[in-house]
Amino acid sequence: MEPRRSLGWPIILGVVLIGSIIALGVGWVLVSIAAALGSKNAAFYWAILGVGVALLVLVLAGVIVYLALTVKAIALSQRQSNFIDSVTHELKSPLASLKLYLQTLTRRPVSPEQQADFHRFMLHDVERLDTLIDHLLDAAKTLQRRPSRAMVATPLAPVLERARDAALHRHGVPAATIRLDVPAAGAPLAVRGREADLEIVFRNLLDNAVKYSLPEPQVEVTAAATASGRVLVRVADNGPGIPIADRTQIFRRFVRLGSELERSTPGTGLGLFLVKSLVGQMRGKVDVRGRTPPPGTVFEVELPAG
Length: 306
Prior knowledge:
By secondary structure, the protein is an alpha+beta fold. The chain folds into three domains: 8-79; 85-144, Signal transduction histidine kinase, dimerisation/phosphotransfer (DHp) domain (Helix Hairpins); 153-304, Heat Shock Protein 90 (2-Layer Sandwich). Helix content is 57%, strand content 12%. The protein has helices spanning 8-37, 42-107, 112-144, 156-171, 195-211, 271-281; strands at 153-155, 178-181, 190-192, 219-225, 230-236, 285-290, 297-304. The strands form two sheets. A five-stranded mixed β-sheet has the order 2-4-5-7-6, covered by helices on one side. The protein has a two-stranded antiparallel sheet with strand order 1-3. A hairpin with a 4-residue loop joins β4 and β5. α1 (8-37) runs antiparallel to α2 (42-107), α2 (42-107) packs antiparallel against α3 and α5 packs antiparallel against α6 (271-281). The radius of gyration is 28 Å and the shape is elongated. Mean pLDDT is 80; it is low at 259-263.
């Protein structure tokens, strides 16, 4: 595997180059001004000085842009490496488990009770692989699709209920783990957006809320209409929380906090990227903050009402 590049050396080299260009430029400008003031052909020196300063500014701007692009490229490479590690782990773990169960079933006799357990575990592994593939396909579709101006009105409660049921089933937690608070009186809440996109958004948010709050997750989902004619959905969990410095980074593609080789929580780093992209396509916004009182995290999704 190719060693992962560090951001330290490009930044240090860029700062040294920028400092050198500034120092040389300032010195050259001072010398040129002194020569112009002491020369009979001052106009020539002032013209050369103007051209030189313009070129100096252009070179300095180029170095700064090149440094920014280099840092951005290395950061993307690091995130892609983490993504490859996470996908590899997500593929290898269930496949190794399936192989072990199949070898056990074929090499020695097992009781009907054990067979039932093995089949249940194998089904769980297959569902894990299916979820991973769906995740990757959702990401590919989101990147290739153009935002649509025509948005249909979609009732919110059924979408949240299906996302809740999927998270409960995937993690095998009690029904009381996720509490929904969606107004039932009067007209049902509806938002403008494709039903499939809304399911991806809230499925990812609820799945993360349960996954990062184990072993005793408690998730609260509330939805309400705002005075500005929009709908606000809040997903609050009792997990460890997200550091303030990382809250703007988690919505970027391939971003997962920590090292993929050391983490125990499955994932690919695409879930919140999908959430951010799809909510933006629906002309909404998503925000994250700490829970009060801590610990915990609160994701707020604001969408136009249907």
